[in-house]
Amino acid sequence: GIQVEQSPPDLILQEGANSTLRCNFSDSVNNLQWFHQNPWGQLINLFYIPSGTKQNGRLSATTVATERYSLLYISSSQTTDSGVYFCAVVGQFYFGTGTSLTVIP
Amino acid sequence: EPEVTQTPSHQVTQMGQEVILRCVPISNHLYFYWYRQILGQKVEFLVSFYNNEISEKSEIFDDQFSVERPDGSNFTLKIRSTKLEDSAMYFCASSRGGNSPLHFGNGTRLTVT
């Protein structure tokens, strides 16, 4: 099956800092989704992004399907951004290994 | 915005007991899924369901597990005889199409003692 690796596994940021999270996948995919798992365990849909770039407020995502990676950008991070960020290959059901983000005030 | 709802939010059961986890997918969605997440680990696929039958399942989804859509709205996951290692958060998801965005419920935390 497809391998989905995320980096870095852990990230600690000062509030206000920017960050880039990466998702690499081992085979071509038709669609990719980014989720934020908040401290209460809920999986919040951030982006459905098979290719190209999308933006939503302080967050944006870019997928380059031909090179098998996707990036999630968080700008001006806030403490509420803390949690685990997962990418998932939709249709093949695979979730990435996750990036655990802690934003400190 | 329509949501996927799951009940109960937390279930405690004794080893060997049967449990049924319930989900109400978004009403116009056609694909339904169960995932699980053992504490601190990644989200793992269990099963997908389409047109009233299982379309895909993982090796985790063994004979102890079953799914059902007993009526037009509910989608259930049954674990026949729970083991300690079944303790996890179980997520239900639905999507409009097989390659459409997944929408997750808030999960059911299952604790097997």
Number of strands of chain A: 11
User: How would you classify the helix and strand content of chain A by structural class?
Assistant: mainly beta
Main sheet record of chain B: 7 strands, mixed
The percent of residues in helical segments of chain A reads: under 10%
Helix content of chain B: under 10%
- End-to-end Cα distance of chain B: 37 Å
- State the distance separating the first and last CA atoms of chain A: 40 Å
Query: How large is the count of helical segments of chain A?
Result: 0
**Strand content range of chain B:** over 45%
SSE run of chain B: EEEEEEEEEEE
Explain this structure:
The complex is a heterodimer of chains A (105) and B (113). Chain A is 0% helix and 57% strand. With 105 residues, chain A is mostly beta strands. In chain A, a hairpin with a 4-residue loop joins strand 7 and strand 8. With 113 residues, chain B is mainly beta. In chain B, a hairpin with a 6-residue loop joins strand 7 (65-68) and strand 8. Chain B is globular, with a radius of gyration of 13 Å. Classes of the chains: A mainly beta (105), B mainly beta (113). The interface between A and B is medium-sized, with 19 and 23 residues.
Give the helices and strands, then pairings.
The complex is a heterodimer of chains A (105) and B (113).
Chain A: E1 4-7, E2 10-14, E3 19-25, E4 32-37, E5 43-48, E6 52-56, E7 59-64, E8 69-74, E9 83-89, E10 94-95, E11 99-104
Chain B: E1 5-7, E2 10-13, E3 19-24, E4 31-37, E5 44-50, E6 53-57, E7 65-68, E8 75-79, E9 88-95, E10 103-104, E11 108-112
Parallel strand pairs in B: 2-11
Antiparallel strand pairs in B: 1-3, 3-8, 4-5, 4-9, 5-6, 7-8, 9-10, 9-11
